[in-house]
Design brief:
This protein is mainly β. Helix content is 5%, strand content 42%. It has one helix at residues 44-50, and strands spanning 8-17, 23-26, 33-36, 58-63, 77-81, 94-98, 104-112, 116-120, 130-141. The protein folds into two domains: 8-69 and 125-141, Roll (Chitinase A, domain 3); 74-120, Thrombin, subunit H. The chain contains one helix and nine strands. 11% of the residues are buried. Residues 7-81 form the PPIase FKBP-type domain. It is an enzyme of class 5 (isomerase). It catalyses: [protein]-peptidylproline (omega=180) = [protein]-peptidylproline (omega=0).
């Protein structure tokens, strides 16, 4: 298979970085990652950026917040009674909660008051533009 299509298994090196160049995640110094197009491993717009690329090709894409992890949503910030937490809390700490369907939902402790705690359920990279750098290592037919 010569180029990435919606029916590809892709092996690649990748790097995500912020606007200031700070690297959020990278596997360039480790083993490459593999995924099957459409399996949910990558965000849809990240996958779409790879369409048509070939083995050995390198590219960088600037992903707007809307194409990456979304924009910050005020309705994802919740106030909860301090009594609901049985642990020592620190601002910035990530705590795991369960949603209505019992799925794990991470929240960041944004503020700790005497009576209530403010928890931010937005993705930590919400409202951030990211640079997605890739190097294609292998392309196979996923079928």
């Amino acid at each position: 298979m010569s180029v990435i299509t919606a029916a590809s298994r892709v092996t690649l090196h990748f790097e995500l970085s912020l606007e200031d160049g700070q690297i959020v995640d990278s596997n360039f110094s480790r083993s490459p990652a593999s995924f099957i197009f459409g399996d949910g491993s990558l965000l849809p717009d990240f996958e779409s950026a790879l369409l048509g690329m070939s083995v050995g090709q390198e590219a960088s894409f600037i992903m707007s917040p809307e194409k990456a992890f979304g924009v910050h949503n005020e309705s994802n910030i919740q106030r909860m009674p301090r009594s609901q937490f049985s642990m020592d809390l620190e601002e910035g700490m990530v705590v795991s909660f369960a949603d209505m369907s019992k799925n794990e939902l991470p929240g960041v402790i944004a503020e700790i008051g005497e009576k209530e705690v403010v928890v931010d359920f937005n993705h930590p990279l919400a409202s951030r533009s990211l640079t997605f750098r890739v190097q294609i290592i292998a392309i196979e037919d996923a079928a």
